[in-house]
Design a protein that fits this description.
The protein has about 140 residues and is an all-beta fold. About 0% of the residues lie in helices and about 40% in strands. The C terminus is likely disordered.
Length: about 140
């Protein structure tokens, strides 16, 4: 009986990793963000990505916009920007000769970490004593959408 390598049995794609919602902070020193999906398939799956914004679905083509890079199932967006309308819902498609599948939808939004400045005054309380604490408003940032 021959030994069959199960890794080389023809099969359509099955997602091993689905894309996750991402919040990109414009001050991120890396200057890019990525969204990942990975499908187990033989032969290996080919990947494509679409973005939906305001009801319009757009195929992402790195050959037409050099801000995008696709490496297998990873979509990298260089210098993402709300002005360039990079925010929205992203979906990955994995396909080979035996089928194609759509990933779950992941949202890309823009925002900043919220920083609240506050002063802490020490207060000693005993076990089960009720205590009120007041935080003074500090500097904070708002989320962009």
């Amino acid at each position: 009986m021959d030994n069959i390598d199960e890794e080389t049995i023809d099969r359509g794609p099955k997602f091993e990793e689905q894309p996750l919602d991402t919040i990109y902070e414009p001050q991120d020193i890396r200057g890019y963000t990525s969204i990942d999906c990975y499908a187990d398939a033989y032969p290996s799956a080919l990947y494509s990505w679409t973005r939906e914004r305001a009801g319009d679905k757009i195929d992402i083509d790195p050959s037409e916009d050099d801000r995008y890079t696709m490496i297998n199932g990873r979509l990298i967006i260089h210098a993402p920007s709300a002005i360039m309308q990079d925010d929205g819902k992203y979906q990955c498609t994995a396909r080979n000769d035996y089928g194609s599948i759509l990933s779950s939808i992941a949202s890309l939004t823009f925002g900043c970490k919220l920083y609240f400045g506050y002063r802490v005054k020490s207060k000693t309380i005993t076990f089960l004593q009720i205590c009120n604490l007041r935080l003074e408003q500090g500097i904070h940032s708002r989320l962009y959408s």
